[in-house]
């Protein structure tokens, strides 16, 4: 941890937040076969969260959901305005998205711009039957009319500060920090 970081949630809170999201997903799809449900993690931390959810869903239901990764960098509305070029990650969607029930997964929902870009990207790969949004943290202050369907934690962070989730290979080392911009 750096001096400008303040721990706000530990690994226990993160595990509970994932359970909260899991419960909401399982409730929505309790009468629906999970064969047509897929998790799509937004690079990079949304991928980790999606993998954690996939494992939790497998434990709860015995079903391993289809899994994909999505890089949205080329779909961002600030692509030419950034000082640095974005790091491009792999998009890997190894199944047909047409008529799938897609759960788009990201770590933090703030302005809605990342999710807007993800929706543009995902529809370039197919036409899902529905798209839901799962996030670890919803910190409010939207710039686009976007909301999460499944939320682990709602938090308010003061202006000039950000929230950073550290996912580790060992979930016992996971943490969420408030950091200076």
Explain this structure to me?
There is one protein chain. By secondary structure, the protein is α/β, with parallel strands linked by helices. It has a single domain, classed as Rossmann fold, CATH 3.40.50.2020. 27% of the residues lie in helices and 28% in strands. It is built from three helices and eight strands; from the N terminus they run E-H-E-H-E-E-H-E-E-E-E. The strands form two sheets. It has a five-stranded parallel sheet, sandwiched between helices. The protein has a three-stranded antiparallel sheet with strand order 1-8-7. Helix 1 packs across helix 2. The longest helix is centred in the first third of the chain and has 18 residues.
Give a concise summary.
This protein is an alpha/beta fold and 181 residues long.
How many individual domains?
Answer: 1
Helix share of residues? Answer: 25-40%
Q: Point out poorly predicted stretches.
A: none
Number of helices: 3
Instruction: Profile the largest sheet.
Output: 5 strands, parallel
